[in-house]
Amino acid sequence: MAEEAYTSDDEVAEPRDETPTSEITYDEQFYPARPQRLRPRARLRDLFALRPRTPRNGRPSGDNPAYVAWLREESMLGDATAIAAQFSGLGSMWQNPYAHPDPRAAIDKASVWFTAYPISLITAPGRSFLGTLGDDDLWRAFEKIGIKAVHTGPVKRAGGLTGWDATPTVDGHFDRISTQIDEQFGTEEEFRTLCEVAASHGGTVIDDIVPGHTGKGADFRLAEMKVDDYPGVYHMVEIAPEDWHLLPRVPRGRDSINLDAETEDQLAKAGYIIGQMQRVIFYDPGIKDTNWSATDVVLGADGVERRWVYLHYFKEGQPSINWLDPTFAGMRLVIGDALHSLGDLGTGALRLDANGFLAVEKTTEGAPAWSEGHPLSEAANQFIASMVRKVGGFTFQELNLTIDDIKATSERGADLSYDFVNRPAYHHALATADTEFLRLTMNLALSMGVPPVGLVHALQNHDEMTYELVHFATLHAEDAFPFRGDEISGAELAVTIRQELTDRLAGDAAPYNATFTTNGIASTLATIIAATLGVTDLDEITPAEIETIKRAHLLLAAFNAWQPGVFALSGWDLCGLLTLPRKQVEPLLATGDTRWIHRAAYDLMDYQPHALHSGSQMPRGVSLYGGLPVQLEDPDSFVSGLAAILRVRKRYRIDVAEQLDVPQVSQRAMLVMVHALEGDARQVTVLNFSDEPISGSVLSEHLIPGAPVIDMMTDKIIGEVDDLHSFPVILDPYQGLSLLINPPADSA
User: Where is the composition biased (Acidic residues) (predicted)?
Assistant: First the structure.
């Protein structure tokens, strides 16, 4: 093994395949071998384009047949029915195994992801977002870095409809209302071209579906009018006219109003809704007091006026999908959308957004409804993930719930899960220069059957730096956890960690960051690090501090990349973006959504050096590192350092290794991870989360005495494992080491 480890990348032996050769594997049936009928050339949208379109004539209300017909043509459920018909009865639908998640097979095809955010990308002149992502030069840069997949983010039409007119998105295009690509991001043809360009560079494209909700588009408007089975798409209840007095008045200019807690309780007692949920996500007094809203009076296609109360886990403009309605209309809508993305556009994978909130059930009187960790959510996820595997793709989920929930859904559902467990913990380790809580979460996940190989370990994405710590704050609130020489409850632990994060990373310590309701802190990783360094004014950052930010940023990249699983990062990471001053996005902050400060526009390839904003009018942010072309020419740049980290990850297949140990450490700022590579070799990740040099010992029973310790970056021997299964290390501030430990020749 020692001799094999130091051959060139082309000479590294492939991992052993222990699967019987007679069995068709997920890996063999991945996208390049996908049955021809499911390749991008299917052009399902072209079929839709040939349909007669109803003109916009008359009043946009239920008594106008033309309006109702137009809504049907615009609806996602209508498209889903047409899309599904293109797949039924084909032998190719039975060529791929689909029962079991296979994270390692997914990782083999897409180990390192770039997470795009459509409205923040400064595009090439005259090109759309999708056209820019399909740029060969960009993919050549990605290849040099080691990026193998692009997650586009949501690019289909979103927001809502008021009459004939579209209304803007209320949640960054996660309030989907159509199967069609939003024109501001490009065309379906550009999306297909992107998929082909990615494939030519050995990569793939990841799209989004949202199983939890839609926006208030054609489907919701048809549901309000009680047309066909459209009400079955949503968790919505028709309120009898004699009980309209229980509902609040909808203000002029709006189409619905959030219920206060008292009204929620009254409607629950009247038998209409199941009332209070386990928690109110995005809780904001006077804006979102509950998870229920009431519509205004709506005239149905049958001439009847109705008012409805509907569920929305997230914002008022995101009505929740009902996965257990007798019509199964919601399920049909979601599956049709997934098939369109995989079978027609040509993507290789899908992200499942808001997929942990697919069921609600009444519990005992006076207790909150069962709305998280419900078996129906697990079943629904299995349906979605199995269908995606059946047509040759894979899925990952953003499930910010307990470790128990992540384990349950990963057994039959998505192939990969976002690492919500350790994400806030590694931020805490950086903020406090203490890895105790991070070691606690990593060992907890490992012991509960959620190994890192099944997780997507990410730097920044479009969301806030989460600190909900759902595992500790909800199901395990009363459990005892060892922490700082004592035992405290999960609830106390969550409060402590949240307080320390907000004290160090927001408020007076870092006024350029901002808390986002009760969910987390709106920030970039660069501003998280700046706050850790004591920077209070971003305009005063010195060149020396920028170098320290870069070094700490690379440490966090090493933490996420030098462990099994997927590694993901964004343009905000690659360019080192700072948060935007609040005044630049003041209108977007009006609803309390502070996340807009960390979604600044960035220019990956220096396409438009003088542009002040993206095509979607997001203001350009301050970049500490610059674009990719300049960085790739500079061996000391962030991107060059990142590429070196990813070369080690790829060469030694750390991404598909097995995590054996996250041991105790001799220095509070140190983190050690021990992984099993092919054969008997071990890889050890050692990290220093502080801005001071440290020295200590790496100790693990999985280390073999007498084995040499080799720095994977330099191929130099730096030590030897002693008889106590340990070896010493010295680390500079924010330094990370990836170490190879081969068994000595006489140990065989």
Answer: 1-12
Rounded Cα–Cα distance for residues 596 and 586 (Å): 9
State the Cα–Cα distance between residues 720 and 709, nearest whole angstrom: 5
Q: Within this chain, do residues 486 and 606 fall inside the same structural domain, yes or no?
A: yes
Contact present, 691 and 548 (Cβ < 8 Å): yes
Tell me, yes or no, whether 716 and 629 share the same domain.
no
Residue type, 732: D
Please identify, among 607, 627, 652, the residue that sits at the C-terminal boundary of a domain: 652
The number of angstroms, rounded, from the C-alpha of 187 to the middle of its chain's C-alpha atoms is 24
Residue 392 falls inside a structural domain: no
Alpha helical stretches, state H, 30-135: 44-49, 65-74, 76-85, 103-109, 129-133
Mean pLDDT to the nearest integer, 657-670 = 97
Examine the pLDDT at 430 and tell me if it is beyond 50: yes
Rounded to 10 deg, the angle between the 188-200 and 136-145 helix axes is 40
C-alpha distance across the termini of the chain, in Å: 11
Q: In this structure, what token pair is assigned to residue 219?
A: 């489907």
Spatial distance between the Cα atoms of 719 and 312, rounded to a whole number of angstroms: 57
Residues 6+ apart with CB under 8 A from 119: 172, 173, 599, 601, 614, 616, 618
Within a 13 Å sphere around the CA of 448, how many CA atoms are in the beta-carbon half?
18
**Does the residue 541 lie in any domain?**
yes
Taken as a whole, the chain contains a residue count of 748
Q: What digits encode the pLDDT tens for the residues 335-370?
A: 999 999 998 899 999 999 888 889 999 998 889 999
Sign, CA dihedral 4-9-11-12, equals positive
Report CA-CA distances (Å) from 331 to 211, 230, 322, 384, 742.
Answer: 8, 12, 8, 9, 50
How far apart CA 721 and CA 743 sit, in angstroms, is 10
Instruction: Answer yes or no: do 647 and 667 share one domain.
Output: no
* Averaged pLDDT for residues 207-226: 97
pLDDT tens-digit series, residues 677-714: 988 899 999 999 999 999 999 999 999 999 999 999 99
Instruction: Specify the pTM.
Output: 0.89
> Is residue 35 scored above 80 in pLDDT?
no
How many Cβ atoms are within 10 Å of 86's Cβ, its own excluded?
A: 18
| Strand ranges, E, within 337-389 | 349-352
Q: State yes or no: pLDDT of 222 exceeds 80.
A: yes
Taking the CA atoms of residue 495, residue 500, residue 501 and residue 503 in that order, the dihedral angle to the nearest 10 degrees is: 120
Query: 530 and 626, same structural domain?
Result: yes
Task: Count the domains in the chain.
Answer: 3
Looking at the structure, do residues 600 and 671 belong to the same domain, yes or no? no
Same domain, 678 and 537: no
Q: pLDDT, tens digit, for every residue of 293-339?
A: 999 999 999 999 999 999 999 999 999 999 999 999 999 999 999 99
Query: For residue 473, what is the domain's CATH number?
Result: 3.20.20.80
Question: Strand, helix or coil at 447?
Answer: helix
User: Which residues, at least 6 apart from 117, have a Cβ–Cβ distance to it below 8 Å?
Assistant: 153, 172, 461, 462, 570, 571, 599
The CATH number given to whatever domain includes residue 710 is 2.60.40.1180
Within a domain: 574: yes
CB 13 within 8 A of CB 678: yes
Q: Which domain holds residue 511?
A: 419-652
Specify the 3-state DSSP secondary structure of 493. helix
pLDDT at 208: 94
Where a domain ends, among 601, 632, 652?
652
Q: 394 near 380, Cβ under 8 Å? A: no
Pairing of strands 394-397, 416-418: parallel
178 inside domain: no
For residue 26, pLDDT over 50 is answered with: no
Amino acid symbol at 257 = I
Q: Are residue 588 and residue 700 in the same domain, yes or no?
A: no
In this structure, the answer to whether residues 426 and 469 fall within a common structural domain is yes
Give dist(CA 191, CA 455) in Å, integer.
27
Range ranked top by mean pLDDT from 17-21, 50-54, 88-92, 654-658: 654-658
Q: In whole angstroms, what separates CA 327 from the centre of its chain?
A: 30
pLDDT at 49: 55
